[in-house]
């Protein structure tokens, strides 16, 4: 009888060992599976399971119409896959400096090669381009179409026009690349009597609308894409010396050189967005914002109306 109980005890102990081993093996297998779900590549789609990495991102932007349209769109796409994104309004110099110093993750408003050339020359070793939102974005001195000038050269010695506008070109924030180009244009075209005033984009647009309403002359530094060209009858002045970059700059997403390694999924999402983004897409956002929508609301509405794009931009992220 004793032997029988001893045998049963040994059998029970053996069963317990087997059960524990099975549980331990199952736990290890589950851990491997979880690791794969959290971001390791598993073949097939090269983007499958791209890891978030550093999940708190900072994106600086300047209060220019295009930047205010693009930035919320990118922010919301990144938040869709699990990032926390803080956007900060700054001037152009601070935007470039913060990304170059790795105090910010990336930006959506670089204008290269002409407009932001000075920033690129200074910071090119610390930053890299992820992709272009707009391939050709022209800049130039701009006037209402009713004005009888067609080229920057027409301003030289033009006393009647100069006195009508107080020999002043109405500008935006002083750190903007288009302002630097305009200062260069004054020198290159010998416009010694002229000066460039600085304010903000909003103040410049308000002044532009006021002058147009009264059919008065005004000269501004203009750029496309921008809703003002859809809402107002404007023309860009010819720039024979190509001070403003000829056919136009690329509007690019620029990141610190460590961004792809630090936040690989964010890098991938931003890259995908730039591959699809174009002037037509930006104009839709600009028109909505100019019509009274908050930039964030315009971005939300766009993503709601284009679910296939959002799915494409976020496919495989964190899966």
UniProtKB/TrEMBL annotation:
User: Which InterPro entries does the record associate with it?
Assistant: ABC_Gly_betaine_transp_sub-bd
Task: Tell me which CDD domains the record gives.
Answer: PBP2_OpuAC_like
Renumbered to this chain, the Low complexity biased-composition regions fall at 36-51
A GO biological process this protein is involved in? glycine betaine transport
| Annotated region described as Disordered, given as residue ranges | 28-51
Q: Name one GO cellular component term.
A: ATP-binding cassette (ABC) transporter complex
Signal peptide span:
1-21
User: Where does it localize?
Assistant: Cell membrane
Keyword list, A-Z: Cell membrane, Membrane, Signal, Transport
* Alphabetized GO MF terms: amine transmembrane transporter activity; carnitine transmembrane transporter activity
Q: Principal localization?
A: membrane
Which top-rank group of organisms is this from?
Bacteria
Question: Gene3D superfamilies from the xrefs?
Answer: Dipeptide-binding Protein, Domain 3, Glycine betaine-binding periplasmic protein, domain 2
Q: Which residues form the ABC-type glycine betaine transport system substrate-binding domain?
A: 56-304
Keyword Ubl conjugation carried by entry:
no
Q: What protein name does the entry list?
A: ABC-type glycine betaine transport system substrate-binding domain-containing protein
- This protein's species is Lentibacillus kapialis
């Amino acid at each position: 009888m004793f032997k029988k109980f001893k045998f049963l005890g040994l059998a029970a102990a053996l069963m317990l060992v087997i059960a524990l081993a099975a549980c331990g093996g199952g736990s290890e297998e589950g851990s491997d599976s979880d690791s794969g779900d959290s971001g390791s590549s598993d073949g097939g789609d090269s983007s499958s399971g791209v890891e978030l990495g550093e999940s708190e991102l900072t994106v600086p932007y300047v209060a220019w119409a295009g930047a205010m349209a693009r930035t919320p769109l990118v922010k919301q796409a990144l938040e869709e896959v699990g990032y926390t994104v803080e956007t900060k309004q700054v001037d152009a110099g601070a935007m470039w400096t913060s990304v170059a110093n790795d105090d910010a993750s990336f930006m959506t408003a670089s204008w290269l090669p002409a407009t932001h050339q000075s920033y690129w020359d200074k910071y090119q070793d610390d930053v890299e381009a992820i992709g272009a939102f707009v391939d050709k974005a022209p800049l130039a001195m701009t006037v209402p179409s009713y004005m009888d000038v067609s080229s920057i050269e027409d301003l030289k010695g033009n006393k009647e026009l100069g006195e009508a506008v107080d020999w002043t070109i109405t500008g935006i924030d002083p750190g903007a690349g288009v302002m630097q180009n305009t200062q260069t244009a004054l020198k290159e075209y010998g416009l010694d009597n002229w000066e460039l005033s600085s304010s903000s984009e909003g103040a410049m647009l308000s002044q532009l609308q006021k002058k147009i309403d009264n059919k008065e002359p005004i000269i501004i530094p203009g750029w496309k894409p921008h809703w003002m060209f859809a809402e107002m009858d404007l023309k860009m002045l010819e720039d024979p010396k190509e001070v403003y970059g000829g056919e136009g700059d690329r509007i690019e997403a620029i990141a610190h050189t460590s961004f792809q390694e630090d936040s690989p999924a964010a890098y991938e999402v931003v890259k995908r967005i730039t591959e699809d983004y174009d002037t037509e897409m930006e104009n839709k956002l600009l028109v909505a914002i100019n019509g009274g929508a908050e930039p964030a609301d315009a971005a939300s509405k766009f993503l709601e109306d284009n679910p296939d794009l959002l799915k494409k931009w976020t496919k495989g992220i964190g899966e």
